Amino acid sequence: MAKLHVSTTVNGEPLEFLCEPHDTMLDALRNQLALTGSKEGCASGDCGACSITLDDRLVCSCLMLAAEAEGHEIRTIEGMARGGRLHPLQEKFLEQAALQCGICTSGMLVASEALLAKNPDPSEEEVRFWLAGNLCRCTGYDKIVRAVLETATEMREAAQ
Amino acid sequence: MTDIRYVAPQTLDEAIGAYAAAGSAARILAGGTDLLVQMRSGAVKPGLIVDIKKVRELTAVEEISGGGFRIGAAVPGAVLAEHPRFRQTWPGVLEAVNLIGSTQVQGRASAGGNLCNASPAGAIVTVQGPDGRRELKVEDVPAGPGRTNLKPGEILVSFTLPPRPPGSSDAYLRMIPRTEMDIAVVGCGVSLTLKDGVCTHARVGLGAVAPTALLVEPAAQALIGSRLDDTALTAAANACRAACRPIDDKRGTIAYRTQIAGVLLKRTTNIAAERAQGK
C-alpha cells in the first residue's frame, strides 16, 4: 500500500510527512511528528482531548484524516507558548489549578485560545457552551471556566 | 484496512468519476465526523475515500438572485454561522444546523452530511452523478435510517434555499435529555410567512419521530389562513401528533415523544411568528 506524502504547516513551521490513507491527523501528530501534547480520549469526537486548529478553526484531530492537512495550517498545544513564554491561558490554568490529571488540559487550552481569538469578552455561558465538546472527569469545570474568564479580562486590559 | 485509497479531486467531474468507478466501496469525505467514527469502529471499510472539500462549489455559500442562498454540501456549520446575511433570512435553518455537535464538530460537520436531520425550509438539493445533474426536494433525499435516494455514483452538491417574501421567518427547536450535545427526542422546524397577521404560507417538519424526518402537511394546513390563535395551534399540534411513528428507547417513550411533538410545534411556531413580525 502506497503511503501518502503530505506537505503542511504545523505551528508555523512548514513540514512534510508520510502517512497511511486511513491515518488520522492525531495519529500523524503523535506517531510521525512526535507531538504528543494532543491526547486520544474517545477517538470519536466526543471528548475534545485531541483539539487542534485547522486554518484557525477548532477541530478534533481524531476526526480528520492526516492526508487532509495537505496545504493547510495546523496549530497544536505545542505551538501555544511563544519564545519560551507560556500563553496567558496556560499561566492562569497553573495559577488557578484548573486541572487535575491533565489529560483534557491541552484540548481545553487549544479550545479556549480559539474562543478568545473569536470572542475576547465571552460570558460565562458562552465559555461553557464553547467548551461543551471538551470533557473533563476531574475538575467539575468550574476552575477551568473561571480561568478562561479571568484570562480574557486580563488579556483585554493588557491590549488597551 | 487493506488497499484503502484517498483522493482529493479539484473538480466535481473528477470526484464523480472516481466515486462512481469505485462502486459501493467508495465513501465521500466532507467533514468526516461520521465517516471517521464509522471507519474506526470497523462499521465501514472503504476501498476509496473521495475528499470533496477541494471542489469550490461544494464548500461555498453563495447568495442567489432575489435573496436566496446556495449552500455547498460540504459547508461546515461554523462557516454558515459566520455568513453575514444567512442568519437574517433563515434563522431556523441555522439553528438546526448549529445544534449538531460541539464547537469542534461544528468546525467540520456539514448539513450535506447530516441530511437525515433535514429541516423544513423548502430547500432544493442538487445532486450530480455519472448521468448528469438533477434536483430533488430535500425531503425526498432520505430513504430510511442510514439510506438515501441518491443513485450509485451521485454526489450531493448543494442546497438551494429560495428567496423569501416579506414577513417570512423560521425556527427550529429540539428536545434532548441533556442541555447540549445529545441526540434529539423530538426536533421541530417551522417556516412561515405572515401577511397582516394572517399566516399565508407554512411548512412544518418533525425529526426523530419516524424513520426519516417528516414534512407534516396537515399541520401546515392547520396554520395557513389562521392568525396562529390557540385553535389553529392546537389543530396543528394534533396533526403533528397524528403523524408521529416514533420508537421507544432510553431517551423517550412513544407516548412521550408523541406528546412532545405537539408541544414543540406550538413553541416553534410562536418563535417563527415573532421573528416574522420583526419582534
Question: What is the fold's blueprint, element by element?
Answer:
The complex is a heterodimer of chains A (160) and B (279).
Chain A: E1 4-10, E2 13-19, H1 25-32, E3 51-54, E4 57-60, E5 73-75, H2 88-95, H3 105-118, H4 124-130, H5 142-159
Parallel strand pairs in A: 1-5
Antiparallel strand pairs in A: 1-2, 3-4, 3-5
Chain B: E1 5-7, H1 12-22, E2 26-29, H2 35-41, E3 48-51, H3 56-59, E4 61-64, E5 68-72, H4 77-82, H5 86-89, H6 91-98, H7 103-106, E6 124-129, E7 132-137, E8 142-144, E9 147-148, E10 155-161, E11 168-175, E12 186-195, E13 198-207, E14 214-215, H8 217-223, H9 230-243, H10 254-276
Parallel strand pairs in B: 1-3, 2-3
Antiparallel strand pairs in B: 4-5, 5-10, 6-7, 6-10, 8-9, 11-12, 12-13, 13-14
Describe this structure in words.
In chain A, helix 2 crosses helix 5. Chain A folds into two domains: 4-79, Ubiquitin-like (UB roll), CATH 3.10.20.30; 88-159, [2Fe-2S]-binding domain (DNA polymerase, domain 1, Orthogonal Bundle). Chain A has 160 residues and is α+β, with helices and mostly antiparallel strands. Chain A has helices at 25-32, 88-95, 105-118, 124-130, 142-159; strands at residues 4-10, 13-19, 51-54, 57-60, 73-75. Chain A contains five helices and five strands. In chain A, 34% of the residues lie in helices and 16% in strands. The longest helix of chain A is centred in the last third of the chain and has 18 residues, at 142-159. With 279 residues, chain B is α+β, with helices and mostly antiparallel strands. Chain B folds into three domains: 5-51, 2-Layer Sandwich (Uridine Diphospho-n-acetylenolpyruvylglucosamine Reductase, domain 2); 56-161, Uridine Diphospho-n-acetylenolpyruvylglucosamine Reductase, domain 3, CATH 3.30.465; 168-276, Enolase-like, domain 1. In chain B, 32% of the residues lie in helices and 27% in strands. In chain B, helix 8 (217-223) runs antiparallel to helix 9. Chain B is globular and about 60 Å long. Residues 116-121 of chain B have low confidence and may be disordered. Chains A and B meet through strand 4 and helix 3 of A and helix 2 and helix 7 of B.
